[in-house]
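User:
Hi there, any thoughts?
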Amino acid sequence: MPGKDKSNISINANPTATLEIEEFKNRMAQHRKDVVMKNKKKK
């Protein structure tokens, strides 16, 4: 798959963007956990 190779190259060429994506994923996961906790407290 040529498209897959291209994306790997761009990730390697721009490691800071990859780190930002990981950080964003972590923040979203944390946000989801917080929302779940709040919803459990309401019940």
About this structure: The mean pLDDT is 77. DSSP finds two helices and no strands in the chain.
